[in-house]
Every structure is written in structure tokens, then in C-alpha cells.
Amino acid sequence: MAPKRESAAPAPELTPLSMEVAHAFGSLSGRALRDAVMFGDIAGQFLAHPVGRQMAFRHLVGGEVSFASESSKVQAITACAVSRDRDVLAVCELCEESKAQVSVYELGPMAS
Questions:
Q1: pTM attached to this predicted model
Q2: What is the average per-residue pLDDT within 4-9?
């Protein structure tokens, strides 16, 4: 008579991991990125600048910082520009496999 096998318990499901940037040290981005700090709203209360592979928006009065979520395929920000009326931000990004993309963000009136 063969020994009785106990049924294995089902493997627990893993929950997806997510992280949020709380603070950024430095602003290392793409090569030769110049003039990369700009006002990010019509009222001039936010500064927009690249931090690694993300864009940061710093409120000048309160000091709070928020970050734009970039794709995990983005390796570096190579250029960024804001429109004259400060309602659109274009960010050029170097991605995996030597591909590039341009992300366009609608800034709108962020003044508080």
C-alpha cells in the first residue's frame, strides 16, 4: 500500500509592488541637458525640472514637490521645453533599446 500524499496548499498570490518618489537628490539626466529649469504654470508658482528619469514640479511658496510618472522604459530625459503660455510641457526621453519618445503634458492653471 502506497503512502497517502497530502495535497499541497495553493501558492499565495503576490500583490504588485509600487513605489512613490518622496525626495530627489540632484538632477542627473541626459547628456548635455541645459536650461532645464522652467516655470511650470501661468502664475509662476511652480518650477519644473528633470530629476533622473522623471519630471519634478516644486511649489515655490510651500516647497512641496510632485513628480510626473514616467514609463519604466524611460532611461533618461534628454530635453524639455514649456510653451510660451506655460500650458504645455514637452519632454524628450531616451528609452530602452535606443528608442526615443516625446511626452506632452498639459500643465494648465496650477496656481493655488
A1: 0.66
A2: 63
